[in-house]
Amino acid sequence: QVQFVESGGGLVQAGDSLRLSCVGSVRTFSDYAMGWFRQAPGKEREFVAGIKYNGDNTYYSESLKGRFTISRDNAKNTVYLQMNSLKPEDTAVYSCAADTYYPLTISPDYWGKGTLVIVSS
Asked: Rounded to whole angstroms, how far apart are CA atoms 19 and 114?
């Protein structure tokens, strides 16, 4: 059964850093472009970052570029999201997504259940 499981969320203070991980239980992880999305309380889900199959290309939400970095390790079936200089408005459930297309479509093939990040002021 294909699944993607996120980890690394938690409660941090404004200005802190956090690294999220998403591990995929798939036969060939590099078959998928990977992305991170987030959904804040009472808001719609928004795109955060995406990375190509072998990690040789990335793209970001313009509002987050410079603070967040997406990377992947195909040998470990894992995609990461490094988040720096966190702000209270970054509080959200962060979910990874896997898509056979790059850039990711609006309906990726698979979603993780998400990990909660809370940034206190």
From this structure: 14
